[in-house]
From TrEMBL, chains A, B:
Organism of provenance: Auricularia subglabra (strain TFB-10046 / SS5) (White-rot fungus)
Record-given protein name: GST N-terminal domain-containing protein
Gene3D superfamilies: 1.20.1050.10, Glutaredoxin
Domain GST N-terminal as annotated: residue spans: 7-97
Domain of life: Eukaryota
Record InterPro entries: Glutathione_S-Trfase_N, GST_UstS-like_C, Thioredoxin-like_sf
Length: 247, 247
């Protein structure tokens, strides 16, 4: 198998996974040509096994192997996990724009850990429940069976539209993104990017989450998000649009 | 008042505050001459008020003004808070080695947020209770009155030496520092520093916490810490020793 095949998650609204978007944004930013192979939720594990991909990680509760996208095939060599793919892209395509400017690799790892624990996970109650509505019926059942709140609550009960739970969850989310805004405020130079005038991988981690959020919340809710923190997330979205194309 | 006066916290074991150490390490690294004015715990607020320092922040529970060290006087101009002091040092002394290499300012802010929430605070139960033993009796009472666990437990009950609570707290702490080890593992180049061959401010945030920890845990416990994660913290300490002098 020659060329680059990018295994991404299918939805009714195109590419939507916050994790595969990191890879897609990185590929597009570096100007690397690829073809997308779309997989629906229930297809991911059997298909990835069938092509010999290794599991991404273990389920922390059951210890079972977890197979996840993104996976990228480089002329048949499979690379699994968004972070490993980004590192591979830097090594294999050193001439394009860089995802990890010198001296930022470890800091970007810390950034991703900060972002997941303190920004993305606190946003979970408002974004998780929107997933079933944008995938096919079989995938929706698959997601409902898989995703449970820490207290065991099913997805549809996390923060139903119009509920007080949802209003409270949005307050928590805005506060969490405020921590990220305080980080972006410290950026060098006039641009919106974290590191100055050009995006780095950490920006794509954030953009991936924003793209996911835009697809699973209501239009009204998304409009509010883009107005938070003096419109920072709307500006970041605009800056990232040149790298959001999907094939 | 001419020259640079550095207001630091006094203890029986010299400089010990994880926050003032950030400043001391930064001053030493940049080769900036200063004199230390030592303050005991109960002296901090009245003394800082008497010289016209602004409060660092509000107590999140009571809303009361909080006065904390480090504070640095630059020819009488007071700068409060370790982060603001570091930024001031970069602007005022641009010719020395840099704490914030270009493109890393925002990432270092994210690092500090990650470090405090996911590494330092989870270490609290093993380090907080060691403070009264290394300060004078009046300061010890002051600290005991001030510091309570989130559940209201007094400092001496958090994790007493030899208790199962303490053993469990050390397990939590090691796991937390493991997250930081995963960050340091991604560092560019052969050195131990986060960003490559020279320290950055984020390294001093970590070293400040390590110096504090070394002074408030037992010698046996500290030996164990320096053996964690293939001895990473022991190596970082050694690399930082040239900047640990106190006047």
């Amino acid at each position: 198998m020659t060329g680059i095949t990018f295994y991404d998650l299918a939805s009714n609204r195109g590419a939507m996974s916050p994790f595969t978007w990191r890879t897609r944004l990185a590929l597009n930013y570096k100007g690397i040509a690829y073809k997308t192979h779309w997989l629906r939720f229930p297809e991911i594990e059997p298909y990835l096994k069938s092509i010999g991909a290794v599991p991404t990680e273990k389920n922390p509760l059951t210890g079972a192997d977890l197979y996840t996208v993104p996976v990228v095939s480089f002329d048949g060599k499979l690379v699994v996990d968004s972070e490993a793919i980004a590192e591979h892209l830097e090594r294999a395509f050193p001439d394009g724009p860089t995802l990890f400017p010198p001296g930022t690799r470890a800091l970007q790892k810390a950034f991703a850990t900060f972002f997941m624990a303190q920004v993305f996970f606190p946003t979970g109650p408002v974004i998780g429940p929107g997933v079933p509505a944008i995938v096919d019926a079989e995938s929706a059942e698959y997601v409902r069976a898989l995703r449970r709140a820490p207290d065991g609550a099913p997805l549809d009960e996390w923060a139903p539209l119009g509920s007080e739970k949802r209003a409270n969850a949005w307050t928590v989310a805005e506060d969490a993104w405020g921590k990220l805004a305080a980080v972006y405020c410290k950026s060098d130079g006039p641009g919106v990017w974290l590191s100055g005038t050009a995006p780095i991988y950490a920006d794509f981690v954030v953009l991936g989450a924003l793209i996911f959020m835009a697809k699973v919340v209501t239009q009204e809710e998304w409009k509010v998000v883009t107005s938070w923190h003096d419109g920072l997330w709307g500006r970041l979205w605009q800056a990232g649009e040149p790298y959001m194309q999907a094939d």
